């Protein structure tokens, strides 16, 4: 499991995740309830939802859109975590949104066991790679991260064992998912238009 120096968890966190992961050999990761807070107050609580509906595709879509960055700090099968981390870091090479990208292949395989009773506390603090207050990330970074994130997700979908029709549906909803995990395309377009109107040059290479 990954741990961050500024995060907390309940005393029985690992035990609850371990029992659930051990009971489901098909799962790559056991994921918790995530309480997001600043140093002084709780901001939100995100509880993992059980799969609803008979369709495998619907369950995968639910996992994609209900997943939380805090799931990255769940309990993994080590070999799978290392393999996915190495591939994603090689393709993406940026810490921001990398957690969502590493989770994506397990979401796609529905290889996630949800453990609402396990509590993970994600504390919001400024990281070294966080945008500074009052500033916006460079347009090149926004476009580059979205492009690389999307390309790797598409690769995972194409490599999956789903039917052609199912892969087409997943590819069709992917831009919405990517917009929630990296940057929305309308935000990038708005930023570009503002820069063009202001006569500011920009570089879209990443």
> Structural class, please?
alpha+beta
Approximately how much helix is present in the residues? Answer: 40-55%
The low-pLDDT segments are: 200-206
**What sort of overall outline do the alpha carbons produce when their principal axes are compared?**
globular
End-to-end CA span = 30 Å
> Overall mean pLDDT score?
87
Please tell me how large the radius of gyration is: 18 Å
Major sheet details: 5 strands, mixed
Quickly count the domains. 1
Strand content: 5-15%
Compute the number of helices. Answer: 7
Give the H and E element order.
EHEEHEHHEHHH
Number of strands: 5
Give me a quick take on this structure:
With 206 residues, the chain is of the alpha+beta class. It has one domain (8-197). It has helices at residues 13-22, 56-66, 78-92, 98-108, 139-159, 164-181, 185-197, and strands at 8-9, 29-37, 42-46, 75-76, 112-123.
Structure overview:
With 206 residues, this protein is α+β, with helices and mostly antiparallel strands. It has one domain. Helix content is 48%, strand content 15%. It has seven helices and five strands, in the order βαββαβααβααα. Strands 1, 2, 3, 4 and 5 form a five-stranded mixed β-sheet that branches. A hairpin with a 4-residue loop joins β2 and β3. α3 packs across α4. The radius of gyration is 18 Å and the shape is globular. It starts with 7 loop residues before the first strand and ends in a 9-residue tail after the last helix.
Task: Give the helices and strands, then pairings.
Layout: E1 8-9, H1 13-22, E2 29-37, E3 42-46, H2 56-66, E4 75-76, H3 78-92, H4 98-108, E5 112-123, H5 139-159, H6 164-181, H7 185-197
Parallel strand pairs: 2-5
Antiparallel strand pairs: 1-5, 2-3, 2-4
Helix pairs in contact: 2-6, 3-4, 4-5, 5-6, 5-7
């Amino acid at each position: 499991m990954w741990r961050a120096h500024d995060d907390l968890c309940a005393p029985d966190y690992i035990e609850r995740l371990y029992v659930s992961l051990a009971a489901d050999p098909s799962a790559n990761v056991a994921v918790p309830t995530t309480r997001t807070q600043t140093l002084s107050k709780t901001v939100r609580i995100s509880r993992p939802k059980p799969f609803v509906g008979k369709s495998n595709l619907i369950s995968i879509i639910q996992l994609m859109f209900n997943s939380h960055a805090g799931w990255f700090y769940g309990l993994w099968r080590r070999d799978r975590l290392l393999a996915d981390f190495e591939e994603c870091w090689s393709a993406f090479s940026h810490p921001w949104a990398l957690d969502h990208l590493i989770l994506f292949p397990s979401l796609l395989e529905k290889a996630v066991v949800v453990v609402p009773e396990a509590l993970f506390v994600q504390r919001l603090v400024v990281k070294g790679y966080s945008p500074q207050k009052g500033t916006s990330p460079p347009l090149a970074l926004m476009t580059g991260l979205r492009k690389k994130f999307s390309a790797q997700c598409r690769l995972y979908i194409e490599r999956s064992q789903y039917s052609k029709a199912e892969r087409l549906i997943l590819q069709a909803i992917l831009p919405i998912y990517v917009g929630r995990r990296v940057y929305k395309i309308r935000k990038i377009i708005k930023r570009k238009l503002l820069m063009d109107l202001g006569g500011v040059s920009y570089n879209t290479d990443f």
